């Protein structure tokens, strides 16, 4: 059986050390446990051990887990979001990390208005131009944020990115540094960056949220 509590404690310690190396307080970094393909029992063990937030990649899987677990911590949508799932996403999630196109933003705004709420979101930035990843190119970001500013039911909290696969976490540092620069230029608060293989580098470069799955929950089933 995966030692979820022990894994979580080790990840939290690594986050704390990375924050201190960068002269930051560990409390500035929210650990989002990515529970994609993770069974409910393992998630319960992580929550009992103090996991502060959960992240899911798919709306349907999240709906089932939220039905089983409720809302003991915030739920984050971290995967690609189809426009036809915007209504469910607004109702299910506390934060949507992956606003990667204006069409989706407008639909989230419309669905949030219908639900009588304001949806908090992050804007996804595609730093590398990879065709397989969504998000705004860095030179599109200013215009995108201006467009989003006109949507009264969306609150843009910050930026998110998924760097290309690398052999060593250190190789992602330049991407994370670039996202921080873009965040600072935009005057936003949050940076969602860093996963199981590179979250310490992300924390050193200013991440306020890291998305960690395997390092907490063990290999996916």
Mind explaining what this structure looks like?
The chain is an alpha/beta fold and 221 residues long. Helix content is 42%, strand content 17%. The protein is built from 9 helices and 8 strands. It has helices at residues 4-21, 40-48, 59-69, 86-92, 102-115, 141-149, 173-186, 199-204, 214-217; strands at 30-34, 53-56, 75-77, 95-99, 119-124, 154-160, 190-192, 209-212. Strand 6 (154-160), helix 7 (173-186) and strand 7 form a beta-alpha-beta unit. The chain is globular. The model has no long low-confidence stretch (mean pLDDT 96).
Fold blueprint:
Elements: H1 4-21, E1 30-34, H2 40-48, E2 53-56, H3 59-69, E3 75-77, H4 86-92, E4 95-99, H5 102-115, E5 119-124, H6 141-149, E6 154-160, H7 173-186, E7 190-192, H8 199-204, E8 209-212, H9 214-217
Parallel strand pairs: 1-2, 1-8, 2-3, 3-4, 4-5, 5-6, 6-7
Structure characteristics:
single chain; 221 residues; alpha/beta; TIM Barrel; eight-stranded parallel β-sheet; 9 helices; 8 strands
What is the gist of this entry?
The chain has helices spanning 4-21, 40-48, 59-69, 86-92, 102-115, 141-149, 173-186, 199-204, 214-217, and strands at 30-34, 53-56, 75-77, 95-99, 119-124, 154-160, 190-192, 209-212. The protein has 221 residues and is of the alpha/beta class.
